[in-house]
Amino acid sequence: MAFCLCPLAQCSTATPPPQISLEEALRVGGADAVYYGTQMRGVSNAKAKRELNFQPRSLEWLVESAVARVS
Predict the structure, then answer these.
(1) Are 24 and 37 in contact (CB under 8 A)?
(2) Burial readout 11-45 (b: 16 or more C-beta within 10 A, e: otherwise)
(3) Phi, psi values for residue 38, rounded to 5°
(4) How far apart are CA 32 and CA 40, in angstroms?
């Protein structure tokens, strides 16, 4: 499965992103990961926040890496 890169990416000297087959993606990540990475669009937590009082927490690994960079 090949994807068309945006014109800006085509003009840059960056190497194209790695690609794997659908079969490999299913084997490595599973059907849910393939769906979320290729089919899902416009995802938002707004409804969950509004209707279910969803309050996402900070990602500990992200906070720790930010603190490590400052130190």
Answers:
(1) no
(2) eeeeeeeeeeeeeebeeeeeeeeeeeeeeeeeeee
(3) -120, -25
(4) 10
Cα distances (Å, whole numbers) of residue 33 to 22, 23, 27, 29, 47: 11, 12, 10, 5, 22
Q: What is the mean pLDDT of residues 33-50?
A: 87
CA distances from 15 to 5, 9, 10, 18 (A): 11, 9, 9, 9
Residue tagged 């900070």 (tokens): 58
Q: Is the pTM of this model over 0.85?
A: no
- Are the C-beta atoms of residues 34 and 25 closer than 8 Å to each other? yes
Mean pLDDT of 14-24: 85
DSSP strands (E only) in the chain: none
